[in-house]
């Protein structure tokens, strides 16, 4: 009675012929499996979990973990990750060397930054892994009912469940481990299982317990239950299971139909009992999972190469420095009397210049180490954490229904969001929401249903805009309203585009039923020209299914729990048409039929004699029933190609118009099925049923083949009555999101566990496929046995298909032609092997879309627990990539380039000064200046760049999705841009050093005639560096808030504040910079003039570059920025629309491509019609009567 629903207890075994039904025990048992050899050593003692705590059984616990580290491995693994980075490794060596006297700096100036950088990075890794751990804790803490003793069940956490435990799982609960199904709430031991977390299948699976355990259906029955399971060892195969159950001194064979896998969910069944076979990481779902790898982005890997380049530069100038020092030692040192050449030290002995040069090399390597930005990694870590927090807190990616926000589970790959070329997406729960609406139907050659599909609505809107631009309809008829198209598209109605405001439809929405057409509603179908065919159509919908009715006491209506959402929508449609399926017994279905608007209801019973279930090979479903008049009927529904080839000669009356309607429905993005029936006579049925029952009760590998042959014998000579068209209800915004992603230049590959035809239908529904697109289906042939010859034959067949497909794509000359690649998981395994993976990749890249069906979880590797980013709805992917991805890529790319620029500009001045002073190894800057440069004075502005920079707003990113291509083309982090920034740094270093030396060196620095000492020169140069690099970053930014202003200009102000305060300290602490600002530099006008001149000169090349680029070679975002700045988008809406159209990437998938194809098709038909009219007019003009 939960949720006001009523369900009767049923026996359903007679309904499931192909998948479930096994021979009756009276007719013979399957022999037990011969289990021996490696891979079949597992023994499970049912209801005796204590037996598995002893050796040699001692199986794994049910605790699962998806973390990367634990308490023992965190420090070694994390340290390895940190020093795997080239810069960190260099600074580790430098920190060790700084302990020795050869270091030109204080040792703590090298050690402290390294500890800070590495420690902060390790803290971030620990925080992210802690989040994974908490997710594991949440899952392990789920509870289930476990048998304790004497028939008593108690709640227990999942992690405490053991092998051998008997558990009770309630409806809509997940299975805590891999279980052997013992019994269920149904007498026949049937239960329904949802496995979409495992294989992506939308249809419910039917599982059936062994008949010998069906009676274990209450708690007391487990008091004395004991048995032994001997089965295969843990393995990742989801679709196989081999084992035996030893119970009551007998052996019973087990197969996958009795196994309930962890992470699948119990549906449509009140409860089941099962015994635990595999736990924790031994379960099949965990066997399919992969460890969380340590991931690094492409930009970070490129950054390593840049650091290697700088290391080479560092070694080069260090060698130059050591050679210069050796030269000075040998030739100039004897002349330097103040160095006491008569009593030289080892490092200044003219007799040993080579030794002096080699020792000086170590000093030089430490001195020029500021070419390598030690704070780069930690700054990137900080920026990425902020970026991840912005993703997590973006309200536009928050799902109100589920209350789930977007979540960046790791921040290591933020910039990768902006460089995605191909999206691999699961289907179930990602693209679809498992809901379908009955929208249209074709009955007796007449199409019914005036409500338009999403594809038709989009085409109508685009046509209205297009016709308005050509002046064919006035702008007054196209206000900002909802476009509604009646019927389906055809050439005679090209101009009948009705645009009207929404809101006239007052009918409450009905789940699964979106049909609108008064001709069939409220009994009006009785006034149609073929009421008998319509009646038969409705009865096929109401009878040909395997669903179970449930009465909702609140509404008084029946709802249906079916294996697929298609069936549920058919039954909802039949109910609304007046044919309500209300009851199912062991052998009958009951339909409440209402024939008129008066509401008079007649309940009819139809005895179900046989049910021929749907399989991926059959692509159809049939049911044989006897009505109340005793007439035998075969009712059939299935794929049109399958049904049409089974029609009788007199059953093709409506074939032509039905085929036309099916084509129109397909163009509208609807999923279609054809409906047919056949009247049977008693003799034919009796003869067939006898043979079919023999096939059902047969034992052996050919059983399924015999059943299919038997079905083919009866499913023939059908009479076509019509077709259905349902709209697969995708998640909100999925088609629009796919369209925007396609316009952004991304390709979408869908991975699904569904059957091929289901996957194709989903492709049409979400506009990955469209009418006219050529489908390339790559499948593997079935080969018996696993011999090498069989595998070789399969691979040759696949390779031949790939070769032909590649040639077909290359030979295609139509610019509008589009190809879709459809491949199943088994074939995919072969194509990813080394000898054919490149051919497969070439074909896949050339195709507009790729759909992989029947894919296993290991091939999909899509578990949320192991994902880097998670979003509640597929439509949020548009904002995640097009907005956050675009921003993150540009921010990180510009940030890294700027980092190298400022460190080159700063580090090379140390080299110039050392060369200027005879390669003395002396630093021109105070140690505290060096310590503050990367950590404080220039780090905050660059962090602001990485966190807050926006070349365009989020709204513009969504309006111009082609901007995303800047990331996929790597326009902001290619080597030309990197080298450009490096050259800019070299130029700035030359300007800063030589202009300061030229200004200060040869003239009085103060009013009293005093010249500047080394500290005054060094402080002046350092001031120029601080100004130049901060002005440079201000010019780099496109978007300013008060935060950027505070950090940029505040960094400059902090420099002056620091110099003033540090100089005010006692001379024992401040040393040579005692009161250097207020007494030496500030009073000297040359100090301020040098700062201004050097800063302006240093940024001139960049200003020139951006001026040239914006005026003569602008990028897309430059044009948009200019339009927005001058408000041209407000003044001229057509200009804005035109720019958006021009900026769109040409695509062959998505709504836009589909609508474009529709418009090309309509224009072609219109052009032909006009040509024919013109031709007829010409003939009329030339006729004798006209003359």
Characterize this entry briefly:
This protein has 1187 residues and is α+β, with helices and mostly antiparallel strands.
Largest sheet: 9 strands, antiparallel
SSE-based structural type: alpha+beta
Our measurement of the CA-to-CA distance between the termini, rounded to an integer number of angstroms, reads 86 Å
The amount of helix comes to: 40-55%
How large, in whole angstroms, is the Cα Rg? 38 Å
Tell me, rounded to a whole number, the average pLDDT.
Answer: 82
Number of domains: 6
Helical run tally? 36
**Overall 3D geometry?**
elongated
Strand proportion, as a percent range, falls in 15-25%
For the biggest β-sheet, the strand order reads 18-17-29-28-27-26-25-24-23
| Strand runs, count | 34
Low-confidence stretches: 1-29, 469-505
Domain P-type ATPase C-terminal: 864-1114
EC number: 7.6.2.1
Subcellular location: Membrane
Protein name: Phospholipid-transporting ATPase
Explain the overall architecture:
The protein is α+β, with helices and mostly antiparallel strands and 1187 residues long. It folds into 6 domains: 71-140, no CATH class; 161-288, Calcium-transporting ATPase, cytoplasmic transduction domain A; 420-431 and 731-867, Rossmann fold, CATH 3.40.50; 441-467 and 510-727, Calcium-transporting ATPase, cytoplasmic domain N; 877-1126, no CATH class; 1130-1170. 44% of the residues lie in helices and 16% in strands. The strands form 8 sheets. The chain has a 9-stranded antiparallel sheet with strand order 18-17-29-28-27-26-25-24-23, sandwiched between helices. The radius of gyration is 38 Å and the shape is elongated. Residues 1-29 and 469-505 have low confidence and may be disordered. Mg(2+) binds at residues 426, 428. Residues 44-111 form the P-type ATPase N-terminal domain. Residues 1166-1187 are annotated as: Disordered. It is found in: Membrane.
């Amino acid at each position: 009675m939960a949720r006001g629903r009523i369900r009767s207890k049923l026996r359903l075994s007679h309904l499931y012929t192909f998948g479930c039904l096994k021979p009756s025990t009276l007719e013979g048992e399957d022999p037990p499996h011969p289990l021996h050899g490696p891979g079949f050593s597992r023994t499970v003692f049912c209801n005796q979990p204590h037996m598995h705590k002893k050796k040699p059984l001692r199986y794994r616990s049910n605790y699962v973990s998806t973390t990367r580290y634990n308490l023992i491995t965190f420090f070694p693994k994390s340290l390895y990750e940190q020093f795997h980075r080239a810069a960190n490794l260099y600074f580790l060596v430098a920190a060790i060397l700084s302990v020795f006297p050869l270091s030109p700096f204080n040792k703590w100036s090298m050690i402290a930054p390294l500890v800070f950088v590495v420690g902060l990075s390790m803290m971030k890794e620990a925080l992210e892994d802690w989040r994974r751990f908490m997710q594991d804790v949440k899952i392990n803490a789920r509870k289930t009912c476990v048998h304790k003793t004497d028939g008593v069940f108690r709640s227990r956490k999942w992690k405490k469940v053991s092998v051998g435990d008997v558990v009770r799982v309630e409806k809509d609960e997940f299975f805590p481990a891999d279980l052997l199904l013992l019994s269920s709430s149904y007498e026949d031991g049937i239960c329904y299982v949802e496995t979409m977390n495992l294989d992506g299948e939308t249809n419910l699976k039917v599982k059936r317990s062994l008949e010998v355990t069906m009676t274990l259906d209450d708690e007391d029955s487990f008091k004395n239950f004991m048995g032994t399971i001997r089965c295969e060892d843990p393995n990742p195969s989801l679709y196989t299971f081999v084992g035996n159950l030893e119970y009551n001194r007998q052996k019973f064979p087990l197969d996958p139909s009795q196994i309930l896998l962890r992470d699948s969910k119990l549906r449509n069944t009140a409860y089941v009992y099962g015994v635990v076979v595999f736990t924790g990481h031994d379960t099949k779902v965990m066997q399919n999972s992969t460890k969380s790898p340590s991931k690094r982005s492409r930009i970070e890997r490129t950054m390593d190469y840049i650091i290697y380049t700088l290391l080479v530069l560092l070694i080069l100038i260090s060698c130059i420095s050591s050679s210069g020092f050796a030269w000075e030692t040998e030739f100039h040192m004897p002349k330097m009397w103040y160095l006491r050449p008569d009593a030289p030290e080892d490092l200044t002995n003219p007799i040993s210049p080579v030794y002096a040069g080699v020792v000086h090399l170590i000093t030089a390597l430490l001195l020029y180490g500021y070419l390598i930005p030690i704070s780069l990694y930690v700054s990137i870590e900080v920026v990425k954490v902020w970026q991840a927090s912005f993703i997590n807190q973006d309200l536009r990616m928050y799902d109100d229904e589920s209350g789930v926000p977007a979540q960046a589970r790791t921040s290591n790959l933020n910039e990768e969001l902006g460089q995605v070329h191909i999206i691999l997406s699961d289907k179930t729960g990602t693209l679809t929401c498992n809901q379908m609406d009955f929208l249209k139907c074709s009955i007796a050659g007449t199409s019914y249903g005036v409500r338009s599909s999403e594809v038709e609505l989009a085409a109508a809107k685009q046509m209205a805009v297009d016709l308005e631009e050509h002046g064919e309809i006035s702008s007054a008829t196209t206000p900002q309203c909802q476009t509604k198209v009646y019927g389906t598209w055809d050439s005679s109605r090209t101009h009948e585009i009705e645009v009207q405001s929404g809101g006239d439809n007052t009918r409450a929405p009905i789940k699964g039923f979106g049909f609108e057409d008064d001709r069939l509603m409220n009994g009006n179908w009785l006034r149609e020209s073929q009421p008998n065919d319509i009646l038969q159509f409705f009865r096929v919908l109401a009878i040909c299914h395997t669903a179970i009715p449930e009465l909702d006491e609140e509404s008084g209506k029946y709802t249906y729990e079916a294996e697929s959402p298609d069936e549920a929508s058919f039954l909802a449609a039949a109910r609304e048409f007046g044919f309500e399926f209300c009851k199912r017994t062991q052998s009958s279905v009951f339909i409440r039929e209402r024939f008129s608007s008066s509401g008079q209801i007649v309940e009819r019973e139809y005895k179900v004699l046989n049910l021929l279930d749907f399989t991926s090979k059959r692509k159809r479903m049939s049911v044989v029933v006897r009505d109340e008049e005793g007439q035998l009927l075969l009712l059939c529904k299935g794929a049109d190609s399958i049904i049409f080839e089974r029609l009788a000669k007199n059953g093709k009356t409506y074939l032509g118009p039905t085929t036309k309607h099916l084509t129109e429905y397909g163009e509208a993005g609807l999923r279609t099925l054809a409906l047919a029936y056949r009247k049977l006579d008693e003799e034919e049925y009796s003869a067939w049923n006898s043979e079919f029952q023999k096939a059902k009760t047969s034992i052996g590998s050919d059983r399924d083949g015999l059943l299919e042959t038997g079905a083919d014998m009866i499913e023939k000579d059908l009479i076509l009555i019509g077709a259905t068209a349902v709209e697969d209800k995708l998640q909100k915004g999925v088609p629009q999101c796919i369209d925007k992603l396609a316009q952004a230049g991304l390709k979408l590959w869908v991975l699904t566990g569904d059957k091929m035809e289901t996957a194709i239908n989903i492709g049409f529904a979400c506009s990955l496929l469209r009418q006219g697109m050529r489908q390339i289906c790559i499948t593997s042939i079935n080969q018996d046995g696993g011999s090498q010859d069989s595998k070789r034959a399969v691979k040759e067949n696949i390779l031949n298909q790939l070769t032909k497909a590649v040639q077909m794509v290359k030979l295609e000359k139509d610019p509008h032609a589009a190809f879709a690649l459809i491949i199943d998981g088994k074939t995919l395994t072969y194509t990813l092997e080394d000898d054919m993976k490149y051919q497969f990749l070439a074909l896949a890249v050339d195709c507009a879309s790729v759909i992989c069906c029947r894919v296993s979880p290991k091939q999909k590797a899509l578990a949320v627990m192991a994902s880097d980013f998670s979003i509640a709805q597929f439509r949020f992917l548009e904002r995640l990539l097009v907005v956050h991805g675009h921003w993150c890529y540009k921010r990180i790319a510009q940030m890294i380039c700027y980092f190298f620029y400022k460190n080159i500009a700063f580090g090379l001045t140390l080299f110039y000064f050392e060369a200027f002073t005879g390669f003395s190894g002396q630093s021109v800057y105070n140690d505290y200046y060096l310590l503050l440069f990367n950590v404080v004075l220039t780090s905050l502005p660059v962090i602001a760049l990485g966190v807050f920079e926006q070349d365009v707003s989020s709204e513009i990113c969504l309006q111009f999705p082609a901007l995303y291509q800047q990331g996929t083309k790597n326009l902001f982090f290619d080597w030309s841009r990197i080298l450009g920034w490096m050259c800019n740094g070299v130029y700035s270093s030359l300007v800063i050093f030589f202009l300061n030396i030229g200004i200060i060196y040869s003239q009085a620095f103060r009013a009293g005639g005093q010249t500047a000492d080394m500290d005054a020169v060094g402080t002046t140069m350092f001031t120029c560096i601080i100004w130049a690099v901060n002005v440079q970053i201000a010019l780099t930014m496109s978007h300013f808030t008060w935060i950027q202003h505070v950090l940029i200009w505040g960094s400059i102000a902090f420099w002056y504040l620091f110099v003033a305060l540090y100089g005010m300290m006692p001379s024992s602490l401040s040393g040579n910079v005692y009161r250097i600002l207020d007494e030496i530099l500030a009073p000297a006008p040359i100090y301020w003039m040098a700062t201004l001149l050097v800063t302006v000169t240093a940024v001139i090349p960049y200003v020139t570059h951006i001026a040239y680029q914006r005026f003569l070679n602008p990028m897309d975002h430059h044009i948009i920025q200019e339009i927005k700045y001058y408000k041209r988008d407000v003044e001229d809406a057509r200009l804005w629309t035109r720019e958006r159209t021009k900026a769109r990437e040409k695509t062959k998938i998505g709504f836009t491509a589909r609508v474009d194809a529709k418009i090309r098709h309509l224009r072609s038909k219109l052009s032909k019609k006009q040509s024919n009219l013109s031709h007829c007019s010409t003939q009329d003009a030339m006729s004798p009567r006209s003359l």
